[in-house]
Amino acid sequence: MEMAVQYIHLLPLRHSEEENYTFYCLYNLSLHRQMLHFEWLLWRLSEQNVPYDVKRQRFHSPHRETTVVNQTVPLPEERRYSFPGSIPSQLFHAHYVPDLTGCVPPLRDASFSDPIETTLPVAKDKLSQQVLELFQACQQQTCDLNRKELCRTELQREIQRIFPQSRLFLVGSSLNGFGTRSSDGDLCLVIKEEPVNQKTEARHILSLVQKLFSSKLSSYIERPQLIRAKVPIVKFRDKVSCVEFDLNVNNVVGIRNTFLLRTYAYIENRVRPLVLVVKKWASFHDINDASRGTLSSYSLVLMVLHYLQTLPEPILPSLQKNYPDSFDPTMQLHLVHQAPCTIPPYLSKNGSSLGDLLIGFFKYYATEFDWSHQMISVREAKAIPRPDGIEWRNKFICVEEPFDGTNTARAVHEKQKFDIIKDEFMKSWQILRDKKDLNCVLPLRTTIQKR
């Protein structure tokens, strides 16, 4: 950074301030690229020096898991990422909204406090071992998160030139514990603490952001596109991280549910592997795309959590029922990240293996859940009767958003797509029940290559 600043002072005086700044951005971008490439090289060298049998032991050892703590949900207060605005400034003296991404849980990086190790589930059968190996190979790594965070930092700095009191938050699978190496990045631009009209005000704000991306930031942001959905977004690709991003305005429920899901992800060690394999399965069978009338990843996560809550011997509780103060939907944003810190692991008497749980998940939605009359509710930890509102009346799948009560599966509004989804659940249940081999419903080698 100092090199880049010094370089600006060497530019000829005939350059305008804007040209100088553009040159600075390009130079800074080059430094970021070198840094990321160097990080990748170090990782490759460390991998090459590890014997193959040790790599195998990473998958088979019951004592291997570095990203989770076994006493409370890992949301450290002390050592955080340092990024612009992490200390209250004059820009936020009136309505300062602390940066929630500063509470990213500890991963395998020296910039975080060391986590207390916990164990992955012990795999005693082939199917469970396949689930674990897929999870270990595809889960989001520290370097993946660092790349997204780097983009968020740079974009926040630029957006604050237009909206000085705004903050940009990384939300969704990048932080909730269910991210994969190929997960997109979700960003929430908080303009003010009050609600924003998504049809008018949010679209206007995003149109300005899109223009910023298309002009001033075009050197490292490509394909910015404004999507006029119920919650409008700007989709774009960051050339440095090669990550696709979705950016919304003031959809603060996404910040709240990020930390709710974060807690579910870490209070029971079978949750994250099971969610990851279901997401990969749904993508492989083309039923994981809300823009094409199928299920969003968020809906799939809620479906897995709901299934684990409704077993005869539950593996998960309702966190909102058990800890209402920690997940109060009216809680101020700057307190949301603190809520999960004191919640201990959930000790279930259910000892089912990952393989049995995966088969049971498909069976539940293929044969037991009443799609016509029931709604999936993680908040209630049970299936509840469908509401009679317009939002629910003509939808084939109803999944309740835990905080605002909307239908996260509203994209599934065509019977043909619904029938395809149901059929995939039925076929996968029958195949896994008989074969007990994940390759029969999800080719592992290809999936791991795609990450």
Characterization of the model:
By secondary structure, the chain is an alpha+beta fold. The protein folds into two domains: 2-49; 53-195 and 250-450, Poly(a)-polymerase, middle domain (Orthogonal Bundle). 43% of the residues lie in helices and 9% in strands. It contains 16 helices and seven strands. The strands form two sheets. The protein has a five-stranded mixed sheet with strand order 1-2-5-4-3, sandwiched between helices. Helix 1 (2-9) packs antiparallel against helix 2 and helix 9 crosses helix 10. The longest helix is centred in the first third of the chain and has 32 residues, at 17-48. The relative contact order is 0.11. The model is unreliable at 1-27 and 43-117 (pLDDT under 50). It holds the Pfam family PAP_assoc. It is found in: Cytoplasm. InterPro entries: MTPAP-like_central (IPR054708), NT_sf (IPR043519), PAP_assoc (IPR002058). Residues 353-407 form the PAP-associated domain. Its cofactor is Mn(2+); Mg(2+).
State the CATH architecture of the largest domain.
Answer: Orthogonal Bundle
Task: Please give the radius of gyration in angstroms.
Answer: 23 Å
Mean pLDDT value? 80
Shape: globular
- How many structural units, i.e. domains? 2
Distance separating the two termini: 32 Å
- The CATH topology name of the largest domain reads Poly(a)-polymerase, middle domain
Relative helix content: 40-55%
Which class of secondary structure composition applies to the elements? alpha+beta
How many strand segments?
A: 7
Strand portion: 5-15%
Number of separate helices:
16
Placed side by side, the strands forming the largest sheet appear as 1-2-5-4-3
Organism: Dromaius novaehollandiae (Emu)
Main location: cytoplasm
GO cellular component, one term: cytoplasm
Protein name: polynucleotide adenylyltransferase
